[in-house]
Amino acid sequence: MSNLGSYPPAFRRQNKERSQKYDPVDEEDSLDLIPLIDLQCINLDKLGEACKEWGLFRLVNHQVPLTLMNQLQEQAKKVFSLSFESKQGLFTSPVSYFWGTPALTPSGTALSRGPNNIHWVEGFNVPLGQLSQFQADEDPMLHSFRLLLEEYGRHMGRLAKTLFEAMVKNLNLDSEESKSNLSESTGYVRAYRYPGLPETEALGMELHTDSSVLSILNQDIVGGLELFKDDKWFKVKPIPGTMIINLGDMMQAISNDEYMSAKHRVKVNKQVERFSICYFVFPEEGSVIRSSNYKPFTYSDFRAQVQDDIKTLGYKVGLERFKIHQD
Ligand SMILES: O=C(O)CCC(=O)C(=O)O
Ligand SMILES: [Fe+2]
Known about the structure:
Layout: H1 9-12, H2 27-30, E1 36-38, H3 44-53, E2 56-60, H4 66-80, H5 84-90, E3 96-99, E4 122-127, H6 140-170, H7 175-178, E5 183-194, E6 203-208, E7 214-219, E8 225-229, E9 232-235, E10 243-247, H8 249-254, E11 263-267, E12 274-282, E13 288-291, E14 294-298, H9 299-312
Parallel strand pairs: 1-2
Antiparallel strand pairs: 2-10, 3-4, 4-5, 5-12, 6-11, 7-10, 7-12, 8-9, 8-11, 13-14
Helix pairs in contact: 3-6, 4-6
The structure holds 2-oxoglutaric acid and fe (ii) ion.
């Protein structure tokens, strides 16, 4: 962990001796079993299979410029390297800075889960619809961060819409009725930094599903994202220039459980920091999700329930709370 002062104090205590070499990559690690979808010619059967079997796929030919993906990663890196105190001071509504957990309240502050339950991650939460209110004009670093986020956000909206429409087709859902189940303006971007920690098995994020309709991930080359499927963990290898698409809980409910939300986690690297940029998109405010396996509910209902469960139980129960059980 270099630049210690940029880390939350609770993270600095973990800064023990680093080992000298990277872990060797074993045979299985070099295999990439994750399904691949080409955005320029979407094969609906292949897309459907990926959504049913994996809840996650790799996207190529997405036409997000590689320079934009890299510039945003680099700019996020610079912003993370500011001192912990500056990050706490500079980022207030609408862009917030958080650490120790990815679970946030609607206003972007971390939902604390106690000192013994730390996730080794820090992040910036950026609601795209409110980006214009982000006071960044005085500071060139923040100003270019904002410009990159705006451009990146437009691309993410385009990808989400194209993929969602293809999924609606594959599921044979009514395309007019489905429209309100995806609203690009509800989207937010999160930039994450995971510290390099010599401890084995430290988790940046524990096993979870995303609450979104879709999540779009741009990860750096360090790796650490893992998918849980058929009782096994699969490494989601970083391949530069590709994006990882995750199906979230809303998509699982919209599809009436034909598709599944991806169960995943993030392991921290033993030597180096990892950076990732994630986009999450949700249904329109107030839009009711109707499907025979679930009670009608809105994303706000779902979010309120998740927040309540995290506060009272310490974890997210998720879709199970809205499921109709037929005995
Ligand atoms: O950083 C990553 O690779 C994944 C982050 C993630 O799973 C999340 O934000 O829900
Ligand atoms: Fe996630």
